[in-house]
Please model this.
Amino acid sequence: MKRIHLLALAFLCLSGGQASQAADRPNVLMIIVDDMNDWVGCLGGHPDVKTPHIDRLAKRGTLFTNAHVAAPVCNPSRVATMTGRLPSSTGVYDNRPVWHEAMRGVTSIPRHFKVNGYRVVGGGKVNHHMPGFNRRSDWHEYFDQVFDNHYQDQLARGLDVTGFQWPKGFPLNRLPAVKSFSRPPKNAKEFDWGAWDKMDREMGDGQMVEWAAKFLAHPPEKPFFLAAGIYRPHLPFYAPRKYFEMYPPDKITLPPTKADDLDDLPEAGKEMAAVRRGDYELVMKSGKYRELLQAYLASVSFGDALVGRLLDALDASPAAKNTIIVFWSDHGWHLGEKRHLHKFTLWERSTRIPFIVVAPGVTHPGTRSGKPVGTIDIFPTLNELCDLPSVDGLDGASLMPMLRNPALDRKRPALITHGQGNHALRTERWRYIRYTNGDEELYDHARDPNEWTNLANKPELASVKSELTKWLPNTDAVPLKRKKKQ
Model:
């Protein structure tokens, strides 16, 4: 009996010590946006864009100006970031595999925080889509975001972001943009845009952000990890009307493009650029290009306003002084460059994202780093910032040294993968692309920021390519497939 009491006392001391240790750890607010490229003010990606809240967030900590995703597609990018494992390690290359079914036993950022004493809550689009792709056991609480249906709010509140489940027989001619096309796009229920006569908080994203704000107003006693997944600026580009009015179509600055930009691409590059070419050609033929730009910029500014609402809620929270903020996008988006819309490429427009870290006592306000980093580095960085145990098998590296001193050099390039064997490497100066068939591209960002001139065939640059290839993955995992329902 005495031994039992001693064991119980030891357990209580141990658990009490763990609780005390957890209580001393910082909170984490992770803000994720979808399809937001470098068209934000602090990155200078577009001269007309208005993103005052993302810009003020950048002023609070460290902005990584040369940050890239692990993959230019939603599911593989989010799986890589949230598990810390690259597509070439997992085989998750597209939107089909349900990661936690195929990667059983693999931990995630929220699960790791949960087992280490944090209150873990999330809402909106954190994983690819909530139903199926979101492992519910990773969270203590989750807010299921409704999808914005422009026409039938009562139906919208029963829908989520699972691939746009519109009512059967929904008339496409009621979609704002689609009804004015010369012909409907093949993916008409997604490829649409338009202004809504609604307030921010009435939109699906707005409802999620209001939920997160309420959580921040009354944080738990134990440290928390809160992930807020904002769906904008993903298609369809719907936003309250006031954001569309910020960008009159006839006054929008067109992004730089080059008529013969595809001429020096290898065949594999041309094939990649041609994915969903029909959407691009339809927009141009129908004279809707400026309208599309307006809708994307409006959606970016709407997303920015939602970020601002979260920042205001945190600033008013009792947890304000002890909360790390991590802000990132799952990938970029082309808007006509290389005659391409959407993501799905290995070029700068698809892979470069806004990435900001604010860590009290670690980062310094208004600092910037142009060293190549990736969202794959978030998991090990958070582990170090929050003094959590390390996790075996992570492919990224902690950014803690750069958060303390953004001037530090980093030899490791950012690695981006799109499909098995197709990779891009981004250094401070170079982007090198090698496709699975051996085709290559090389761009000098010091002289060619728009990636208009492919230098891969220049003999004098063979040594540059040779040095970069050392950073390509040693293996390319077999693509995972979604398991069929029994």
Observations:
- The chain is about 30% helix and 15% strand.
- The chain has one domain: 24-469.
- Residues 289-315 form the longest helix (27 residues).
- Residues 24-469 form a domain with the Alkaline Phosphatase, subunit A fold (CATH 3.40.720.10).
